[in-house]
């Protein structure tokens, strides 16, 4: 089965953290940065398993300042980007000092905060923290179990890039484990569902399609409203922003309720019910 328009991978880390080295080992190639920074690079990886084939878009980012990155990615504007992701790969050099170790912990917490802000507690994204080789010696000797505990606290799985083969439990380690974890990820994206150009209810591909279309409509209309306000030179107050967030949350709750109500219906009836419900909610908006 070919997965069309799958969710994305975001590979990131501090400058010179080895992100491109990991991508080269994982995918067989890596993009070349036009300047010293890898931020903003994109890549593709054809992932084939016995169950599916997917051409995964990979976005590359750098985190020179954790506080600034956290502020940007926990902002409402970042939600659409984060919800398009299926996996995060955070690369870091093995720490030389306690300060470096603290930065690694803070970065994982910042990523976890961004995911929670965008997806709530229902996020299903794969999060991997990959320790890359450190050229500076000596570096901190952090036991694997401590790394694992530290990463688990923020929803990450710890992977040591330099390990090969399998561990004492027969589990893959190193880059092989990164690939294995990504193979198990749910890559199907709502954006990949074909809604067609016909507004007839039969053009919907099932309830998941109606739900995804409603999400896109809401985000699109919200963005359009902001654009109109910008053109008119209006400044959005904190009270107005809070009201917009509240309205969006109400609509999301309605969407969840509609989904639950339609779960027990036969497919044709569910399609009609969902199409009417979407139209009614958008009219209210």
TrEMBL record:
Gene3D superfamilies: 3.40.50.11960. InterPro entries: Irc6. It comes from Ampelomyces quisqualis (Powdery mildew agent). This is Alpha and gamma adaptin binding protein p34-domain-containing protein. One of its GO terms (molecular function) is protein-macromolecule adaptor activity. GO terms for biological process: vesicle-mediated transport. It comes from the Eukaryota.
């Amino acid at each position: 089965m070919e997965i069309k328009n799958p969710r994305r991978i975001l590979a990131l880390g501090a400058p010179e953290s080895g992100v491109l080295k990991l991508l080269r080992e994982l995918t067989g190639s890596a993009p070349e940065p036009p300047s010293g920074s890898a931020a903003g690079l994109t890549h593709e990886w054809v992932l084939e398993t016995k169950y599916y084939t997917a051409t995964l878009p990979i976005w590359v980012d750098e985190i020179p300042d954790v506080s600034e990155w956290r502020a940007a990615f926990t902002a409402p504007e970042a939600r659409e980007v984060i919800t398009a992701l299926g996996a995060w790969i955070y690369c870091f050099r093995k720490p030389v000092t306690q300060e470096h170790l603290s930065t690694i912990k803070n970065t994982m917490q910042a990523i976890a905060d961004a995911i929670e802000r965008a997806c709530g507690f229902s996020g299903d994204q794969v999060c991997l923290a990959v320790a890359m080789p450190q050229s500076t010696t000596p570096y901190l000797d952090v036991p694997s179990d401590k790394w694992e505990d530290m990463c688990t606290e923020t929803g990450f799985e710890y992977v040591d890039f330099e390990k090969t083969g399998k561990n004492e439990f027969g589990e893959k380690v190193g880059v092989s484990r990164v690939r294995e974890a990504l193979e198990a990820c749910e890559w199907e994206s709502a954006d990949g569902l074909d809604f067609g150009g016909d507004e007839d209810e039969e053009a919907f591909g099932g309830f998941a399609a109606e739900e995804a279309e409603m999400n896109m409509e809401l985000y699109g209309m919200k963005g359009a409203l902001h654009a109109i306000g910008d053109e008119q030179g209006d400044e959005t107050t904190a009270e107005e922003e809070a009201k917009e967030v509240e309205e969006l949350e109400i609509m999301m709750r309605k969407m969840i309720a509609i989904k639950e109500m339609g779960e027990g219906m036969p497919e044709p009836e569910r399609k009609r019910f969902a199409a009417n419900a979407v139209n009614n909610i958008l009219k209210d908006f």
